[in-house]
Design goal:
globular, alpha/beta, 6-stranded mixed β-sheet, single chain, about 270 residues
Length: about 270
C-alpha cells in the first residue's frame, strides 16, 4: 500500500524528534521554535480532540481558515492522522458539509454561518494562549486541545482516499508523490533550513494545491522558518534568516529577500 501523509509525519517524528522543524515569527518579532516531537504533541492532542471530542471519522471534512502558521500546520497533520479531508479556506469561502471549521478571530462569524458541526477558534498566539473574546458556540482551540492525550496512533488509512481539497480533491498517495517530487526538485536535505517569507494573514493555500511545500519538508526532514514581511523589510528579513542559518528561501511575499542574501531561491 502506498504511503500517506500521516506515515511521512510519523517517520519524521521517529527519526528526528529533537531536530528543529518549524520556527515561526509573528508580526511583532516574537519567535517560537518547535521540534517534530513538540509539534507532534499538539498534533496528538488535536487528533484526540477530533476523535474523542468531535467524533471525527475518516473522510470527514475539516475546513481550516487560518493563515500559514504552526497551528495551521498542526491542523493539517492532525486531519491526515485521523483520515479526515483538510480543506484550506481563503477568505470567508467555507465549504459546505464540513464537520469542523477552525478559524482565526476575524473569520469566526463566517465559520459559524458555514453550517459546520463544530466551530473552533484559534488565537494564533506564538505560545498558544487562548482567545481573549470567545463568541458563543465556539470552542477555544488551545484550551480544548490541552485537555486531551499526548499520544495518538494514526489509523490504518487508505492512501487512495481523499486527504486534501484545494483546487481539486487529492488522495494521500497523490500528496506524498507531489511532496517527494518537490523535495527532489528543490534538492532538500535534513541539513537545510528553508525560510518562507509571507505577507500579513497569508492563507494556508500558499503551501500549494497539493500542500507539497509542507510535505516536502517532512519528506526531507528540512526545517522551516516562517517570517512575515515585504519589500520594505528585506534588510531585516535577510538579517533574521542569516541568524537562523537559512540555506534557502521561498519568497511568497515578493520581498526580494533572496537577492544578494546568499540563499538558494526556491520557486
Amino acid at each position: 500500500m502506498s504511503e500517506t501523509p500521516a506515515q511521512l509525519w510519523r517517520d519524521l517524528v521517529a527519526t528526528a524528534p529533537a531536530h528543529p522543524f518549524v520556527t515561526s515569527y509573528d508580526a511583532s518579532g516574537g519567535r517560537v521554535e518547535l521540534s517534530p516531537a513538540t509539534l507532534d504533541n499538539w498534533v496528538s492532542k488535536t487528533a484526540n480532540m477530533m476523535v474523542d471530542g468531535f467524533g471525527t471519522q475518516p473522510d470527514d471534512r475539516v475546513a481550516v481558515a487560518l493563515p500559514l502558521h504552526w497551528q495551521s500546520i498542526v491542523w493539517l497533520l492532525s486531519s491526515w492522522s485521523v483520515g479526515a479531508v483538510a480543506v484550506p479556506v481563503d477568505g470567508d469561502a467555507f465549504p459546505d458539509g464540513a464537520q469542523i471549521a477552525v478559524a482565526d478571530a476575524d473569520r469566526l462569524g463566517a465559520a459559524l454561518d458555514s453550517g459546520a458541526e463544530e466551530v473552533v477558534g484559534a488565537s494564533l498566539h506564538p505560545l498558544g494562549l487562548p482567545l481573549r473574546d470567545l463568541p458563543p458556540m465556539v470552542l477555544d482551540y488551545t484550551t480544548e486541545a490541552r485537555g486531551h492525550g499526548d499520544h495518538f496512533s494514526p489509523y490504518v488509512l487508505d492512501s487512495g482516499a481523499p486527504a486534501y481539497a484545494s483546487g481539486r480533491a487529492w488522495t494521500g498517495a497523490e500528496l506524498v508523490a507531489a511532496a517527494r517530487e518537490r523535495a527532489e526538485r528543490w534538492a532538500l536535505t535534513g541539513g537545510d533550513r528553508v525560510g518562507i517569507v509571507i505577507g500579513p494573514a497569508t492563507p494556508l493555500s500558499v503551501l500549494g494545491d497539493d500542500a507539497s511545500v509542507l510535505l516536502a519538508a517532512v519528506v526531507a526532514g528540512t526545517a522551516l522558518v516562517l517570517l512575515e514581511g515585504g519589500p520594505e523589510d528585506a534588510t531585516d528579513l535577510r538579517s533574521r534568516l542569516k541568524m537562523e542559518g537559512a540555506t534557502a528561501v521561498l519568497d511568497l511575499a515578493d520581498s526580494g529577500v533572496a537577492a544578494d542574501g546568499g540563499f538558494r531561491a526556491l520557486g
